[in-house]
Amino acid sequence: MNIFKQREKEYALERLKFLKSRYSEASELLDFYQHILEYQREVYESLDGKEPNWRRGMKWFYRLLDMCIKYGTPQISERAVDMKQMERDRVGNMIDKFLKEKKAEDIDRFLFLSFLNPFYERIAESMDIDR
Question: Can you give the pTM of this predicted structure?
Fold first, then answer.
């Protein structure tokens, strides 16, 4: 991970801690967001030196669903349960469709973007013109 990306991720987590200390009424939402950021950092780090192919990394999507079931809002949790019960190919096709059409229901969009973000960060880094 380049130093700027690492610092950016650390700053986001530090900022969350500050916001939680200042706005206790939002701590549940901020806790969930912290779990998302930590998940994305873990996925990003696991992709170091590997081809960032989201289809090969579908196990990470199911880890995201587990996390959303445990920590998400009731609506997010319910949708995560629904998706876990779907066949893997169907979920992959839904993500493909989202990537092509750039449209999905709000919760699906959130789940797809949360999952795809680390893969696309790695792809962007591999195309960095400064290399």
Answer: 0.84
